[in-house]
Amino acid sequence: MVALTQDELLAEFETMTLIQLADFVKAFEEKFDVTAAAAVAAAPVGPAAAAEVAEEQDEFDVVLTGAGEKKIQVIKVVRELTSLGLKEAKDLVDGAPKPVLEKVAKDAAEKAKEALEGAGASVEVK
Hints:
By secondary structure, this protein is α+β, with helices and mostly antiparallel strands. The protein has helices at residues 6-14, 18-32, 47-55, 71-81, 86-94, 106-118, and strands at 60-66, 98-104, 122-125. A three-stranded antiparallel beta sheet has the order 2-1-3, with helices on one face. Helix 4 packs across helix 5 (86-94) and helix 4 (71-81) runs antiparallel to helix 6. The longest helix has 15 residues, at 18-32.
């Protein structure tokens, strides 16, 4: 068996859809009995700490809460924003509420929200 370099593996991952990549991660976790979760540091406790964490938020999730009446337009916008195929984008829109983008910058989240709302969808940025 030929070992692939890190660059070759990354190039292969670039060709995968998000769903295929998620399936791969699950299989990897099962095969090697590991978890792909990031380490979590202990967070400060209390109302002041919660306000501090809210101020420092730099990653946002764009959540599709409803497709509206122009579902086809919303599916097109979802496909533009993500690397999902037609079926995956349709499933995401049909399964609302679901996240469209996760852990993106505030400006990217706002642009995605505007695009989705422009297509007739209802969206939340968290």
